[in-house]
Amino acid sequence: MSLFRHACVNFPNLLLTIGNLEAKPLIGLLPSWSRWDRRPALSLGDEKFRRCDSMSSDHTYGFRLLAEDNDRVQIGLRMGFAADVGSLTRENVDKLPEKQYWFRPGEKLEIDVPGTGPMVITGELMDHMPALIANDPSEQLDPKTDELRFVSPVLLRGKTVVFDFQGASAITDRKQGEIEFYAPGEGLFHISLSPLSGAAEGRITTSRVSVVLEGQSYVFLLAAPVARGEHIWILRDTSFQPSGDLRRGFMKSFEQSHLLARP
Asked: pTM to 2 decimals?
């Protein structure tokens, strides 16, 4: 069995980092989708994510994920001067000649760019499509496996802001973990990526968590992506009465929730 074919079973997505010879991202390379900026993510399993078209002040680029063989991956690159291509549309990009390259994820691929200098491409196999991608590879925007993050949460009941916990954060890296969130007047929220006894199932959409509790819609707006998956469980305890300064609101995390539902 080839190494790449085996890897594709669990890591079907490829994250490219595009830079110059000093391994710095190329300034001004802007993608056609706002969540990609100098680091296009391409999918082997999802046709709509097999390509990423980009434009800088000087050049237009079109990246495609074409094939895999053993431990290598093949990408296609279309490239032309932006002034000659015109607006960034799929039809205009497809008119450019395409060159194809094989390389191994983790290694560097150097491609000459007329008028700019060499472009250096590296790749990283991933088991999911990242929710957000940092321009700088040293920055980590995407949650880790089983990680649950609440960063600077704002709680909405319906369309009304009922609590703003700006600057506060709680993180657990265990799927059976839990975050407790207390909002004055709303109660104590138990939040987990695993089902909790008596909890309602909510939905994660990048940096937003929505759930319906006792017929009332709640939305948590966060300053960073929450988790890799879409499912989350939330239980609200309106009888909880904190003491002292905790009555102003608090948030904390646990590695193991005591409210986990029995299989």
From this structure: 0.55
